[in-house]
From TrEMBL:
Xref: CDD domains: PBP2_phosphate_like_2 (cd13654)
One GO BP annotation of this record: phosphate ion transport
Domain of life: Bacteria
PROSITE patterns in the cross-refs: PROKAR_LIPOPROTEIN
Name recorded for this polypeptide: Phosphate-binding protein
Bilayer topology annotation: Lipid-anchor
Family membership noted in the UniProt record: Belongs to the PstS family.
PBP domain segment(s): 45-293
Disordered: annotated segments: 24-45
Subcellular location, principal: membrane
Length: 324
């Protein structure tokens, strides 16, 4: 099971936390608020104690940020239950459209067809940006030949062309060995983003192992010297002892290159989409979103992503206040 280094399991939080990304065939949730706060507890915490429940779902890339925020929020509001599934950006939007969730985590902007379905369902929503990510291409540490690739070479590797891809197809001096591919599943916003900026809408190689669980991808690449994969930057930083990040067009993914946009075209924003009616009708959800925007920057850095400029979080808080 994936355990993020900033998390601790303590009775003081009064919560249960199960970490990791999962696919659409399995549901793993983060929950808080199993024990109500007493009057003395509320006084000690110095904040109005709320009750209620909040439901979210979506991106496995955004999950480490949200899971950390849920854990921290439980200390402030132990009688609010926050449940967060991790079924991928696309799977999360499906639940959001169906009215099953208050918010949806996404590692890409909402698609036009998803926005149209929300409009048809009568669901108004607001987009909040919470962090930057650098989609990271990784290889096995034993791979000392493909640690620097160009965008064109990534296209040559990942786009299906009817052949069995070998490293020597990219560079004759590289091993005459078949490339082993690991990719996020098609419900993943990371897959969608890679499709947009690298595949240009072409088909991904047919023999790739697909998984909505980024930890499966980590393990796959770490276990095969001929493997290559991609996923969110935080999953690389958490596993950099067993993976090598590939420089793209001469630029390595780092906090600095991701924030500046130098790491292009694989730098991207991460989002939370919130249902407006739930913000207005559910005080607990409004409070959780306020907590999210106030703390997303520090949590993003804690789990290995890149915080936004402070003014963007303030803009988000101003937008949130206008929705109350």
């Amino acid at each position: 099971m994936k355990k993020w280094k900033y998390l601790t399991m303590t009775a003081a939080l009064g919560s249960a936390l199960v970490l990791g990304a999962c696919g659409s065939d399995e549901t793993k949730e983060t929950e808080t608020g199993t024990e109500p706060a007493t009057g003395s507890d509320a006084a000690e915490q110095g904040t109005a104690q709320l009750t209620g429940s909040v439901a979210g779902d979506g991106s496995s890339t955004v999950a480490p940020i949200t899971e950390g925020l849920v854990e921290e929020y439980a200390a402030a509001q132990p009688d609010v239950q926050v449940s967060v599934g991790v079924s991928g950006t696309g799977g999360g939007f499906e639940k959001f459209i169906a009215g099953e969730t208050d918010f949806s985590n996404a590692s890409r902007p909402i698609k036009e067809e998803e926005a149209a379905k929300l409009k048809e369902a009568g669901i108004d929503y607001t987009e909040f940006q919470i962090a930057f990510d650098g989609l990271t291409v990784v290889v096995n540490p034993e791979n000392d030949w493909a640690t620097e690739l160009t965008v064109d070479q990534l296209k040559q590797l990942w786009i299906e062309d009817g052949t069995t891809k070998k490293w020597s197809d990219i560079d004759p001096s590289w091993p005459d060995e078949e490339v082993v591919f690991y990719s996020p599943g098609t419900d993943s916003g990371t897959y969608d983003y890679f499709d947009e900026v690298i595949l240009d809408g072409a088909d991904l190689v047919k023999n790739a192992t697909l998984s909505e669980d980024d930890n499966v991808l980590v393990q796959g690449v770490a276990g095969d010297k001929n493997a290559i994969g991609f996923f969110g930057y935080a999953y690389y930083t958490e596993n950099q002892d067993k993976l090598t990040a590939v420089s793209v067009d001469g630029v390595a993914p780092t906090n600095e290159t991701i924030e500046s946009g130098e790491y292009t075209p694989l730098s991207r924003p991460l989002f939370v989409y919130a249902k407006n009616s739930a913000l207005q009708e559910n005080e607990a959800f409004y409070d959780f979103m306020k907590f999210t925007l106030e703390n997303a920057g520090s949590m993003a850095e804690a789990v290995g992503y890149v915080k936004l400029p402070d003014e963007l979080y303030q803009e988000g808080l101003t937008t949130l206040e206008g929705l109350k």
